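Assess the record.
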Amino acid sequence: MLTALAAISAQEFGGLSLLGSPWLGLACLFVAGVAAGVINSMAGGGSFLTIPLLIGLGLPAGAANGTIRVSILSQNATLAATFHANGVRAHRLTLRLALPVLVGALAGSWLATQLDDGVFRPLIGGVLVLWAIVLVVKPDRFLHPPDEEREPTALTYLLTGLVGLYGGFLQAGVGFPLIAMLSGHLGYDLVRTNAVKASLIFVYTCVALPMFALHGQIAWIPALVLAGGTMIGAWLGARWQLEKGAAVVRWFVLAAVGVSGLAMLTSLL
């Protein structure tokens, strides 16, 4: 009888359970969401924490990839609003890059929903290992902007479309190529880079989230719990970098790159 009730309870909570308790699983997910929100606001890679956690708690890989989109939407809405309220804005650039990132994300999210879990799970593992190698071996490519801001070029729009394609397909790590493009390629300082990054991720998630929802790949209760945590983390991270400036973001990016890369290699080898 108790076993049956536990199974029903886990089902109601999206299938998540830790040590037989869905409540403990959701509490763990909320705490991880706060941490992921801080990480994503400062650099990127928070989904390297939340996707494996969702899978470990019992969600299929495809559903985990869809479920995090709710938190990605709310987290980046919080970030964009916080930056805007504090005068850190680059709306013109965001509008110019919105179309290619939307088109890419629409294609990427559709492709992700067409793969069954037997294909998607090892694919996630392979992508995370590749990211680990890039982040550990070449972290400096994310941290050396030109001396002045540059206007977007045809290459910028192509890169933005590819980032949207990747982000729509698999959210994990999308912040790193966006930082490389916005800071390393266009010359934006790291605080302004994070403001534009948040706006672009919010924009493309507006098309990616409905795609996953239409294909039934969102566990809504875990998604909302995770969203609550990431919103708190995003606000904390935004306030921190607004107070401390680009220098703290630079060091946080270095730490996030090294830790997330090494953690992925350790867990997936």
The first helix runs from residue 2 to 12. The chain has one domain: 21-268. Residues 21-268 form one domain.
